[in-house]
Each structure stands twice: as C-alpha cells, then as structure tokens.
Design goal:
heterodimer; A: 374 residues; five-stranded parallel sheet; four-stranded parallel sheet; B: 289 residues; mainly alpha; 2 strands; globular; transmembrane (chain B)
C-alpha cells in the first residue's frame, strides 16, 4: 500500500512537471484586492483573453502560454512578495505591476532574476528614466509615460485658450506626484499656472475639504490624477458640490460611464492611452471578444493586459531561443502594430511610443478629440 | 470667515458619521473588553448590503437602511455566539487576532460574492444640495447625519431607561457584581455586540450613496475610528461622540487651510497630544491595563 502511494505520488509529480515544461509561463503581478482591485482584475482578464487567442491559434511554435497571476495589493511590499512567488514558477517574463510605486519596487528584483519585466499600465516617468540605458535593461514599457501624456494634455489645454489656472489633485503616490511634476514641466511657458496641488492618501473616501477649497478658489480647471474607487468617489462628490471648474487631467472616463450618461461630466477632458471608442478594426474585434468573455467593456487596464501578452508572444515567436535572455533580445527588435493603430518600438530606455488620446465628454458620450504621438 | 464656517459645518457632518461607527466600537469594548478590529468591515458589509438592495432588488433607500442594519446586526450576533462568546477575561491579544481574522474573512468573502469592482448607489437625494443661508449642505450627507443622530439618541434612550440597557451599563462597570445580582452575561454581551455591529452596518448603509462601495472601504475608516475612541476614552460613549466631532472639525479645518496630506495625520497627532495630557482619554474612567 505504502509503495503504491509513493508510486502514485511520483507519477502525479512526473505528470505535473511534464505539464509545467510544456507551457510557457508568464507571470502577472497586479492588485487583485484593495482599492484598485477592479483595475487589476481587468488587466488579468485582458491578459487571459490574449493568451486564449494565442493558444487557440497554435501557441508559441506549438507550446501553450499560461498566465500566472499574483496579488500585489498596489502595495510595494506586497508587490515584492508577489514577484518572488511568481519567480518560483520559472516564468519567461513578468507583467505588471499596474501601480507605479509597486513597479519601481519590483524592477530591481526582475533585474537580479534576469527576466524581462513588461510594464503596461504604470505611468510614472521614473520607470522610463531607470530602464534601458538608465541602468535596468530588463524593464520594458509599452504604454506612454506621464511625461508623454502631460505634453499631449498641455498642448491641448493651451489650444483651448480658456484655461489660465489649474488646481491639481492627485493621489500621494509615484503616480500622483509624478503626474504633478510632468504636468508642471509640460505647462512651462504656456501661460497656464498650477495654483494649488493636493495629494491625498489612497483609499480616502471623503474629499469634501479639498473640494470646498476648490469651490472657493474657482480655478479654470481641475487636473485629477486618481485611480480606482478614489477617482469615482472624487468625481461623485465633485459633481455633488456643483463645482464649475472644468474637469481634466488623467481621468479614466471609461470607468465613469454611468456618471457620464447621467450628464454629469459634460465637457470634461482627459489624456489617456486607450478608449473603447477607438475606430480601428483590431480594437473593434478586441472589444467584441472581451465583452463576450467577461460581460463588461474593456478599459485601459484590460487593453494593456491584452497588448502586453501580444507583444510578448510576438517577441517569443521571433526569439531564437526560448529563454529570458532570448526574449529580451527579441523585445529590443520589436516592431509591433498596436491595437490603437500606433506602433510598439522600444527606444534606448526600453520605452515604446504608442499614441496618446485626448478624450472628451460630449452630449453624454465619450469622443476622441485628437490623437498624438508621445 | 465664511470659508471657515463652511469647513466647520463640513467637519461636524463628517464627525457625526465617525460617531456612529465609533460608538458601536466603544460599546463593544465597554461590555466585552474586546477591541473589534473587524468593525470597519462590518461597516463595509452594511454598505454592500444596501447597495445590493437598492440597485439589484429595487428596494427604497430608507427600508434598505433598516434591513441592512438588522442584517449586519444579525451577522454580528452570530459572530458573538460562535466565536466571541468563548473569550475569558485577560485574553485581550486573542481577541485582536480573532477579530482581524473575521475582518479578512468579511472583506474577501464580499469580494468573492460581489466582485471587487466598486458600486455606485443612486437615490433620489443623490446630487441634491441645499443652500442654507449661503452655506453648502449635501442632502445625502445630511440624511446620513440625521440617521446617525436618531440612532445615537435611540441608543442613549435604551441604555438609560430600559432594564436591558441598564444591565449593559452595569455589566460594563463591574462584571462580577453584575453577575452576582443575576445579570446573564451571555445575553447582555451578545446584545451589546449585536447593537454595536448593527450601528456600524447602519453607518455603512447610510453612507453607501455618499462614498463608493467596495470590499476594501472598511480599512481606512477603522484606524481613524480607533484614534477617536482612544481620544474619547476606551469604552466611553459620550467620549466617542465628542471625540468624533472634534476630529471631524479639526480634520476639515486643517485640510481646508493647509493640505489634504496633513488631514489624515491630524487624528493621530491629536491622539498623541490627548494621551500625553489625559492618559485615559478625555472621558476615560481610569486606567484599565
């Protein structure tokens, strides 16, 4: 009996390692609990959809892809644990980590492990500064950084000609603070002044105080750099207080459809790397299959999860050997057609320059005003 | 001056919200001597239940409030019967670990059942505001404040005028003596826990249309409320009320004149200052430890 048990265990173990060898594992570190969990869930969904499509089309030279997701709670400490757990499963690359602060924390770990880190959502300019010739050659980013986005937004606000003062409100993280620096830099010499800057702690439910101050100061626009539930809470209270300043910044309008349809955000503008409304055949197909699979519209995070996997798969197919080093080399030579119609090509900082969209709420729907390079 | 008055009004409204949560926490501590680390998650549970009732089941906001508070109170009573009842005096640390665990189960259980996406609750009072002699008052928030005031007044009535309320206070003052005169601890403590937790649920339900509802919403408010009951004096209900209003107004004024980043620190700076001057809190009845 004892022998049989051992034999059975060994067989199971052998079967398990055979499966593990067959599949190419891609790690994903993203928040699956906490205040931005919904965004992490979307990134995971997007990535899983891409993996399914690639596997259905024959995988990577016959081998199947597999996504292994770990929760990082949008917290740098938890982020490090999540990546260390992922590395136990021998992933060819890790995607993540959605939040800028977490991404910056896990970059050195991936460098030490000598495996590519594919950044798709986090926008802090520091990530680009530190990647590629900046020192960390294993970090690649496909989404535009906040500097790129801020330049696009700054140009647009200047062209509007009605905005002279801006009140900045952002979360107290690398995202909010980085966004503030990038926007300050982008608005230099444009005749627009940032008159106040407030940084709130992530997870803050109540914004009455800062909104009361903004209501009294009457700036021409409010630049908001918030994420997840904080953003939703801020905008609800902003609307509740009948503030007349134009809402702008990095507002994820696609997360706010009910508020927009209620006519609450009329005229709000935002700079964003993605919009469901993008009129390309690839995007229409993506939106359709995403809706069928998950019953929700995709957002920026699901789009980037989807695109990250596709960029990795493209590089894996071209890679001479299926190793992290081979993948890194193939990524550096990438020239990939994005769903947005832009192009994914990495510069010497391993930063790709996809398009930035200026989106605007007009008559209760989101429209794309302009698209520009970053 | 107008700006200052507006900040004070905002602060008082915020303080009433804190009070509703803090009083329940203080009540449970007074009777059971357990610090309920799951309290914020019961607040979240109340908000989640109300969101489900109003958006999915189509029940009105006010009936939903009552159902949500009763349901959360019932969950609280079950938690008492199954888990908290077995504590003996002096097992303070076990209480902390256990209630942290209960909180994790609640948070992840709600995320599992309802998903982690945030939900918006719209009521006929959403985005309605009143202009009270030049000052801005948000209707939905004002309703939450009124609900809080009514609940606190009811609790005061129960504790002062009913036999069961008097038994609760007697039990909190001196366990052995209460036991000797025939007060049954299991009944009294169970009821106190259920009421305390129902108040947290009621607070969550009343605030669901004001804030975004999601599984992690209990954690940030919990720590602030801890600071509040420490400032007020552990176990003191008037202390919890006064400290809540104090923190609400201080936060609002500090945030209004300096930066939002400082706003969060205020509760804890105030806690340190109060503890230095009054080691048992403002209304504390001597040191327990």
């Amino acid at each position: 009996m004892f022998r049989m048990t051992i034999a059975a265990t060994m067989m199971l173990f052998a079967a398990h390692s055979a499966v593990a060898q067959d599949k190419i594992v891609i790690g994903l570190s993203t928040p699956l609990t906490g205040s931005v969990a919904a965004l992490g869930q979307h990134e995971n969904w997007g990535a899983s959809l891409a993996v399914e499509e690639i596997n259905d089309a024959g995988g990577i030279n016959g081998r199947q892809l597999h996504i292994e997701a770990q929760d990082n709670q949008c917290n740098p400490t938890q982020g490090i644990t999540s990546v260390e757990n992922l590395l136990q499963n021998d992933p060819i690359a890790v995607m993540g980590a959605l939040c800028s602060s977490v991404t910056l924390a896990v970059m050195p770990i991936m460098e030490r492990a000598e495996r590519p880190l594919m950044v798709g959502v986090a926008t802090s300019p520091l990530i680009t500064e530190q990647a590629g010739v900046g020192g960390n050659d294993w970090t690649f980013r496909i989404n535009p950084s906040d500097s790129g986005l801020a330049v696009a937004l700054g140009n647009y606000l200047t062209e509007m000609n009605t905005i002279k003062t801006i009140a900045f409100v952002g979360e107290d993280t690398d995202y909010g603070r980085g966004g503030h620096n990038a926007l300050t830099e982008a608005l230099k010499g444009k005749g627009i002044e940032i008159v106040s800057a407030d940084f709130y702690k992530q997870g803050t439910p109540d914004f009455t105080t800062v909104l009361t101050r903004i209501k009294a100061a009457k700036p021409d626009a409010v630049a908001l750099y918030a994420t997840g539930v904080d953003e939703l809470g801020f905008i609800r209270q902003y609307r509740g207080m009948n503030i007349e300043s134009l809402l702008s910044g990095r507002v994820s309008l696609d997360e706010l459809l009910p508020v927009i349809q209620a006519g609450a955000l009329e005229g709000a503008t935002s700079v964003y790397p993605y919009a469901v409304q993008l009129d390309t055949p690839e995007n229409k197909a993506f939106v359709e299959s995403f809706k069928t699979a998950y019953g929700e519209l995709p957002n920026y995070q699901s789009f980037q999860g989807y695109e990250s996997v596709r960029v990795l798969a493209d590089a894996l197919k071209r890679s001479k050997e299926l190793t992290p080093a081979g993948l890194k080399q193939a990524l550096k030579e990438a020239d990939f057609a994005s769903v947005t119609g832009g192009n994914i090509k990495f510069d010497d900082h391993n930063q790709a320059h996809n398009l930035a969209l200026i989106v605007k709420v007009k008559d209760g729907v989101i429209v794309i005003e302009t698209m520009s390079g970053t | 001056m107008e700006f200052f008055t507006q900040l004070v009004i905002n602060g008082l409204m915020l303080g009433m919200v804190y009070a509703l949560i803090a009083i329940g926490l203080s009540l449970i501590f007074g009777v059971l001597e357990i610090v309920n680390f799951a309290h914020g998650h019961f607040y979240m549970l109340g908000a989640t239940i109300l969101a489900a009732l109003v958006t999915s089941a189509g029940i009105g906001f006010f009936p939903g409030l009552i159902v949500a508070a009763l349901a959360v109170g019932m969950v609280g009573y079950i938690v008492y019967v199954v888990l908290l009842r077995h504590f003996r005096e002096g097992e303070f640390d076990r209480g902390i670990i256990l209630t942290i665990g209960i909180g994790m189960v609640l948070q992840n259980g709600v995320a599992y059942l309802f998903g982690s996406s945030s939900r918006i609750v719209d009521t006929p009072f959403s985005f309605v505001s009143w202009d009270v002699s030049g000052f801005f008052v948000d209707a939905q928030r004002a309703i939450a404040v009124m609900v809080g005031a009514v609940a606190i007044a009811l609790l005061y009535g129960v504790l002062t005028f009913t036999r069961i309320g008097k038994a609760m206070r007697a039990f909190a003052q001196n366990r052995e003596a209460a036991f000797i005169v025939g007060i049954r601890p299991a009944v009294i403590a169970g009821l106190a826990v259920a009421i305390g937790i129902a108040l947290a649920g009621l607070a969550g339900a009343a605030l669901a249309p004001v804030f975004a509802v999601h599984p992690a919403m209990g954690a940030p408010i919990l720590f602030k409320v801890f600071a509040i009951i420490i400032i007020g004096g552990l176990g003191s209900l008037p202390g919890a009320l006064v400290a809540s209003l104090l923190i609400g107004v201080t936060e609002s004024v500090v945030g209004g004149y300096s930066s939002v980043a400082l706003q969060d620190a205020v509760a804890f700076i105030l806690m340190i200052v109060v503890l230095l001057a009054f080691p048992a809190g403002l209304f504390g009845k001597g040191i327990r430890v």
